[in-house]
Amino acid sequence: MVGQFQTSDPLMKRELRMTVEDYEIYKSRIGASGTNLAYDRGVMLVYGIPQTGTDLVAMVVNGNGIPEAGENRVYDNDKYKNFGLRVTQGIGDIASVGGFYYYGKESISHQLVDPIETYTGTNEVTYMGPDVNVGLGILEFTGQYLIRKDTEPMSGMEDIETTGIVAEVIYAPQKDKSRFYLTGLYNNIDSDMDAFDYETATLSGTYLVARNLRLIGEYTRNLKKESNLLTVGVISAF
Fold this sequence. Notes:
mainly beta
């Protein structure tokens, strides 16, 4: 694939999720960093080995998301490219285990308050971690654990480590022919920069009216802020 895609697609597909609540570790940017595992531009190569049930995904991306092109008609905002590799091994017809590694550099800049000036530097970003998927007919579980390391995401902040967990269970009473789905989702982010800590638990019900139209009712408990969010609405695409 060449063009615009989500770097997290080989892990969990954000655009196809059943919940309004997101997979937070994929879209989080730490400090002044512009790198995450959401939308990006680049090249993704996919290769499968049917004899062993092994899938390989390699990617080269800009690492700065999908902003508009600059005056020079270039989408990347620095000279660096980021690289990702995912290996997945199927276990029979019910499960798979995988590992993901991502490395890149980026030029970052942000305003300093005292003294008032613009800080510029280079940040190295690394992601690594395992994931598992288990499908048992009407139930499917997906779990992801990621470690993100930033060498200097902001002035004065060095060697910042952030860990993230995404755990999702989907209940489909009629398997792939279901119109009703019940989803449980857990998000956890624990960062050396406490401002980026995040923890929620979500329960969501979805009714599929048509292929491009579904009704949703969702409750999310923010375990960090001790607050609640109730969402009721319609999701559609044309």
